[in-house]
Write a sequence for this structure.
């Protein structure tokens, strides 16, 4: 009888070199000795993925996505086989599989494929033989046998999906930080590790810039209620539990402050202020795969108005070109660009039941004479676009004003 | 209508870096422009395979062979996808496949798997779509979906097997030399490129030390009469044709001289000279996977005799241990070791119909006062074990005496 099934996922920094792979092997074997069945998902070694992307870029700056997936999927295959060898070296049984071998079937949207189904028979069979099963993260295969990848951070998704499908007792996400923090500790040294956080809060935080976990994997975890434990692979401290509902000793208004410097702002001036005009712009942007984030249309006192929106920096060039073309077509005025912005956000389910959170945020920024250029809100988050130079100060100020500096 | 189907194989040095991959892409596209269908087999980039082996060795010096295959197969997957991208960059259609995807089914002898069957439907389908098909060499998959590799030089075998199965019009093996030479040009600058050579001669030469092609792939080419063209990827000169029968302008006695410094000699002294005693030794060696090469039993004038044999250096430690154990068990005398040997061989179908070739060889070596320690012969080759220090001189002397220095 086993004590239960644990799915563990180790990120690239956790398997960056021989010593770290050996360390992960010892940890995995430790769990096995305690009587757990283990399925271990691994990312590519350290910067392997980036190095492969760079290599491809030299050969073809606009590579076919199917071929990119063929290329990038090798990174996780390498780390999976090496971890299996490291576990075998310790005298235990392990076997590694690619996403294809383990039956992770996806659609054919290469580089960002979605999992359609997982056939876990093979994994169960190997577990029954007393083996630890190592799975190459980040990848799957189409029904046509083409290799696919699940997008940046896709190994998280592999782990969550396997945990769901195998009805695992726990799903541990190992990374190079000790969990989810109230803010990025590199910016705010007072940042505290959060012991428990809800899926929704984590989802907002991940979407708003916290890079601990891939947003899609949290969505899947939420959908199937897979409890996640984000923790460090460098020590044995417990990290952050991501769960459905958090019972807190005291009422916590805000769980964390996030910062995202990877957006740019585009403003289309002199747009005729009548229904249907703005539609053209956002239709064209969507058609070319640009995902628009915040949109603000100025209150206009004339027939004309300005529309501002933000896009990811990666899409900036494409979005700029499209906006200029649309401006010409609809007879709008200038197009302004601003890459010098940052988005600072506060996240917390507490704000659902509390009034005045937004006012408190705006006040805090005003105290430091930080100008707010755009605002957007959701049920459990408020984001402000500010000048990039003010970003760090804003994070520290909000962290303090919402009481996150104090021990939780 | 296409002009025909060409299978090309590019070795590791031909795809060692971005520039060389681009060069291969231009060559492949050149063939396509001329109207040929193309199936291209690639090895791993440069020293990738050795680097992966080194990495594995640090983690587990005695790694599970299944996991080694998982690891090593990534090298060819990387080069296949990169070559496809490079071809696409030139504006042509290409698609890459792993051995598994392309249906190269093997047995489960990991690290040295044998091909059972190949299902070429997928390749034919892609060729019909007007695509160049790039196949990761060196690898296959078992019926149980485990990834296998075909042993060192296995990409040659992939190419030959695909050429056979696709009934290709030609099979070109691209490498960093211009073809098969009458001797290693680094030893004998007078060595000449051989324009045509028979499968049997090539097989002998490859087995005896010429490293141009993997022996197993030549065996398969011979069996199915697949004509091979070994040539350089750095220029467009024609290389060496490996075919069934060679029509020569004049009678050529010897096609080439080969040298192998990767063997060691073991001598078991004082063995009782009666039937069945030696059997024990070679049974034990075979049982532990050591492949014995030359065997010489001295003519004895007493009840006792000496047995000498050679093994690959890689097996030397294992073979030594076993021989010592057997010596003890059968009450033989000392075991002597000699790593300081070389095997020099002459190869040629011509010797079948000519007498005195062996005598001429021994005479040539005697002229230079080179002592012959062991001799072995086949239908089309004669090998002598000599001191390693005499190896280069022996090659040069034989090359000259058998008339290989003169233009063919």
């Amino acid at each position: 009888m086993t004590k239960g099934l644990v799915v563990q996922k180790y990120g690239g920094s956790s398997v960056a070199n021989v010593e770290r792979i050996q360390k992960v092997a010892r940890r995995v074997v430790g769990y096995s000795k305690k009587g757990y069945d283990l399925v271990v998902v691994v990312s590519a070694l350290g910067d392997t993925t980036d190095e492969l992307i760079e290599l491809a870029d030299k050969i073809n700056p606009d590579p076919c996505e199917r071929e990119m997936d063929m290329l990038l999927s090798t990174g996780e295959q390498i780390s999976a086989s090496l971890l299996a060898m490291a576990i075998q070296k310790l005298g235990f049984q392990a076997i590694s599989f690619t996403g294809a071998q383990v039956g992770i079937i996806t659609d054919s949207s290469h580089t960002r494929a979605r999992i359609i189904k997982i056939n876990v028979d093979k994994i169960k069979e190997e577990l029954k033989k007393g083996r630890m099963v190592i799975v190459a993260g980040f990848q799957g295969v189409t029904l046509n046998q083409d290799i696919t990848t699940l997008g940046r951070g896709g190994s998280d998704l592999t782990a969550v999906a396997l945990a769901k499908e195998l009805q695992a007792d726990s799903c541990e996400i190992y990374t190079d930080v000790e969990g989810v923090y109230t803010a990025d500790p590199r910016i705010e040294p007072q940042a505290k590790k959060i012991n428990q956080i809800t899926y929704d809060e984590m989802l907002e935080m991940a979407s708003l810039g916290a890079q601990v976990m891939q947003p899609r994997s949290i969505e899947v975890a939420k959908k199937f209620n897979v409890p996640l434990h984000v923790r460090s692979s460098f020590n044995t401290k417990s990290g952050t539990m991501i769960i459905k509902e958090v019972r807190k000793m005291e009422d916590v208004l805000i769980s964390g402050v996030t910062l995202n410097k990877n957006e740019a702002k585009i403003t289309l001036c002199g747009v005729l202020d009548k229904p249907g005009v703005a539609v053209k712009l956002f239709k064209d942007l969507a058609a070319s795969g640009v995902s628009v984030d915040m949109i603000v249309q100025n209150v206009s006192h004339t027939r004309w108005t300005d529309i501002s929106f933000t896009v990811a920096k990666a899409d900036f060039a494409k979005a700029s070109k499209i906006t200029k073309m649309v401006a010409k077509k609809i007879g709008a005025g200038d197009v302004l660009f601003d890459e010098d912005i940052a988005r600072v956000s506060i996240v917390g389910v507490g704000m659902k039941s509390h009034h005045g959170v937004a006012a408190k945020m705006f006040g805090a920024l005003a105290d430091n004479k930080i100008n707010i250029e755009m605002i957007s809100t959701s049920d459990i988050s408020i984001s402000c676009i500010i000048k990039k130079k003010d970003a760090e100060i804003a994070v520290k100020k909000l962290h303090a004003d919402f009481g996150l500096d104090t021990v939780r």
